[in-house]
Amino acid sequence: MSVTVRVPAKVNVQLAVGGARPDGFHDLANVFLAVGLYDEVTATPADELTVTCEGPGADQVPLDRTNLAARAALALAARHGIDPAVRLHIAKDIPVAGGMAGGSADAAGALVACDALWGTGASRAELLDICAELGSDVPFSLVGGAALGTGRGERLRPLEVGGVFHWVFAVADGGLSTPAVYREFDRLHENDEVPEPVASQALLDALAKGDVDALAAFLPGSNDLQPAALSLFPQLADTLAAGRAAGALAALVSGSGPTTAFLARDAASAHTVAEGLLAAGVCKAARVAVSPAPGATILP
Ligand code: C5P
């Protein structure tokens, strides 16, 4: 018997970053939107804990106990006094090290899969607790949809979304380390008084109404990590420009990057933008996806 869980990627439609805290993390106002690009995590009984991975970028995914999916299984097993003898297989479709929470998705997927496989019957609150221990973005990977994350992003308030948004994601040739991007943010702001991060009411209204023009108007400048990501990965400026030239309503870096996100008016326009990005030679792949998408879901 095995259990397979499908988990979505995310884009941050607002990532307001405060100053560095004493613990090194940053307080955030993080508006997460789950998008329909998915990893699938399958948990199967085995002699010992192992991780395998297939799909684009799988060679960059660690297969030892530093893998966030392995850590999720170990955390759940430890809490319930279970032997974590499980094979975790990750079918990757979310860009690796791309700023789309692929590692967090695998952690949330492993947690839900192992919970079902082992029959631990953990409550939603307990699962969310474990998610928050594993990483700032992991709770959102579990819940999906749209949510405002505060604290380091792990405290979630679900948000209403009144429509479907069409996106194109340009996968970059290479990855960015999230801690390195936050360090660059700190360097760029070392002489600034960084304001408290606050979610934009105009953005929350745009999401609630499903108003693509209002969302597009808000997106430029909505990601405080974008200047840091561009500083470390300057070629992304060309990718952003190419997507705008191909008809995207708005272009931004996804989270800490280097994936870039393009909002399109509809499905046809999204395909045009994807073709334009590929023709311009400014990305490794261009993926079309819609939002919102459901959180971690056990597949039948
Ligand atoms: O929480 P997670 O392990 O995903 O965070 C990865 C890194 O990103 C942290 O070690 C930290 O450097 C940075 N980070 C941060 N502030 C946050 C979230 C992440 O500085 N709110």
TrEMBL record:
Catalytic residue list: 10, 137
Catalytic reactions on record: 4-CDP-2-C-methyl-D-erythritol + ATP = 4-CDP-2-C-methyl-D-erythritol 2-phosphate + ADP + H(+)
Pfam families in the cross-refs: GHMP_kinases_C (PF08544), GHMP_kinases_N (PF00288)
InterPro entries for this protein: GHMP_kinase_C_dom, GHMP_kinase_C_sf, GHMP_kinase_N_dom, IspE, Ribosomal_Su5_D2-typ_SF, Ribsml_uS5_D2-typ_fold_subgr
Keyword Nucleotide-binding recorded: yes
Pathway(s) where this gene product acts: Isoprenoid biosynthesis; isopentenyl diphosphate biosynthesis via DXP pathway; isopentenyl diphosphate from 1-deoxy-D-xylulose 5-phosphate: step 3/6
Source superkingdom: Bacteria
The entry's keywords: ATP-binding, Isoprene biosynthesis, Kinase, Nucleotide-binding, Transferase
EC number of the protein: 2.7.1.148
Domain GHMP kinase C-terminal per the UniProt entry, residue ranges: 204-280
Listed NCBIfam families: ispE, PRK03188.1
Protein name: 4-diphosphocytidyl-2-C-methyl-D-erythritol kinase
Gene: ispE
